[in-house]
């Protein structure tokens, strides 16, 4: 999920329909502006954040806990509104925070590595994949290197939760602020 410096969305967050997605029970989501108006339970949202369905905790850090693959979310409630948080979940590629862009590197032997560029020097490129593993690729072995317009955050995470779970998650994320 994007945090901090991010590209401006090409449309207003509430102009994108969530109803093209269904929750894990197969129920269509209402429009984002309606979903953003719902009030959830932040304590239940913590459980969703840390749980396996959404998987947020594997990639995002809050405080000193969580993964360090996507942007830290410790103060995301100061940076994004509820509609913007929803936009980030339903459309993660709409605005990708700088330095969390996905890169695709193809080598001479036909191997393809993808991940966040951790290092780019004269003699190698290091990518960090979605599992947090680092891959060093010697520059003299690289055939092509390009930024992928798609986020490493998977599309459709709303489909891994019920609507109540998503609303609880958004409520929790909106409480994460600088103290």
Description:
With 179 residues, the chain is of the alpha+beta class. It folds into two domains: 107 residues, Cytochrome c-like domain (Cytochrome Bc1 Complex, Chain D, domain 2, Orthogonal Bundle), CATH 1.10.760; 47 residues, SH3 type barrels (Roll), CATH 2.30.30.100. The protein has six helices and seven strands; from the N terminus they run H-H-H-E-E-H-H-E-E-E-E-E-H. The strands form two sheets. A five-stranded antiparallel sheet has the order 6-5-4-3-7, with no helix packed on it. The chain has a two-stranded antiparallel sheet with strand order 1-2. Helix 2 crosses helix 6.
Supply database-style keywords.
179 residues, alpha+beta, Cytochrome Bc1 Complex, Chain D, domain 2, SH3 type barrels, 2 domains, two-stranded antiparallel ribbon, 7 strands, 20% strand
Strand order of the largest sheet: 6-5-4-3-7
In percent, how helical is the residue content? 25-40%
Count the strands?
7
- Give the overall average pLDDT: 89
Briefly, what CATH class of the largest domain? Answer: Mainly Alpha
Tell me the overall shape: elongated
Proportion of residues in extended strands:
15-25%
Number of helices: 6
What does the main sheet amount to? 5 strands, antiparallel
How many independent structural domains? 2
- Topology-level CATH name of the largest domain: Cytochrome Bc1 Complex, Chain D, domain 2
- The end-to-end distance, rounded to whole angstroms, is 21 Å
């Amino acid at each position: 999920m994007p945090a901090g410096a991010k590209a401006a969305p090409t449309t207003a967050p509430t102009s994108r329909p969530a109803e093209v997605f269904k929750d894990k029970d197969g129920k269509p989501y209402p429009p984002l502006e309606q979903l953003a108006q719902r009030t959830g339970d932040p304590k239940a949202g913590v459980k969703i954040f840390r749980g396996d369905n959404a998987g947020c905790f594997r990639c995002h850090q809050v405080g000193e806990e969580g993964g360090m693959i996507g942007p830290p979310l410790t103060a995301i409630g100061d940076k994004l509104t509820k509609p913007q948080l929803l936009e980030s979940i339903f459309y993660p590629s709409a605005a990708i925070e700088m330095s969390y862009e996905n890169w695709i590197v193809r080598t001479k032997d036909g191997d393809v590595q993808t991940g966040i560029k951790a290092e780019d020097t004269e003699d190698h490129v290091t990518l960090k994949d979605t599992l947090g593993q680092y891959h060093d690729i010697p520059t003299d072995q690289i055939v092509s290197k390009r930024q992928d317009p798609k986020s490493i955050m998977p599309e459709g995470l709303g489909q891994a939760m019920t609507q109540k779970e998503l609303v609880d998650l958004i409520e929790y994320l909106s409480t994460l602020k600088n103290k």
